Amino acid sequence: MPDLLLGLIGGNIAASSAPLLHTLAGRHHGIAVEYRRLVPRELGKTLPQILEGCAASGFAGVNITYPYKEEAVGHVRIADEAVEALGAVNTVLFAENGMAGHNTDHTGFIAVCRAAFGAAPPGVVGLIGAGGVGRAIAFGLAELGASEVRLLDQDRTRAARLSRDLKTVHPALRVALCDDECALADGADGLINGTPVGMHGQPGLPVQQKRIAQAKWVFDAVYTPVETPFLQAARAAGLTAISGFELFLHQGIDAWKLFSGLPIPEAALRAPLEQAVFGKTDHVDPGGGAAPLTRDKIV
After folding, report:
1. Residue 258 to residue 104: CA distance in whole angstroms
2. Annotated catalytic residue 68
3. Domains of the chain, earliest start first
4. Interval 172-181: pLDDT, tens
């Protein structure tokens, strides 16, 4: 029997490296971790049914990924006002007093930006995608002191809702709703992809390459593959390009602390994860039922 039973609920998670991350974290502390992939469509169950089943089966917690982060908000208790305001949950803890929702995409993104830019604010940032991860990133940008956040989403109503929620919590922040890529990118310091575009099964660029070249830096929340077309286009244009691997790592560190109550040094995870993710898999045993990974298999 495992010491800690965890899981991931999502729709496209066959290549997820979350089992590896949490197995490694457990191994660092001498804790046996079992981490299961839970796909509602494959199980023939709804998100609340799976959450209730996990609570009844002894799970300590689960991660939530696309496309269930916003839906999860309606089924958990949220104590953190910031998480309640941003309206998306990617981590759920199970306890006697019910299910508690958290968002480590939010805290993880802030850690990624501070590691990349130090105390410097992000400047003017164009964000493509106003869904679950986009909301976490947008609120992170506000906390980091962005001078303006520009939002572009195929669903303008969803972008407008995010704009309203941002302005409610951060009334001094300039938020612009963009109807096209030109308005998003013109004069922007950074561009962020918060959509599934570029992911395995959804190839392509979230914006045209000529728009990408207008920025100074880009960040892609997609981690499968690690080298997305968006990052490749940015590097070809000479921009600073930040991989979704960084968000994967930092949100995982924060989730592990919530699941276990124990800290995990970044160095304890970074080296073995990079070894697995970037192709050196010979000496990495993922454990937890995970398959060995290659460079293009990280979620």
Report:
1. 9
2. yes
3. 4-104+246-277 (3.40.50.10860), 106-243 (3.40.50.720)
4. 999 999 999 9
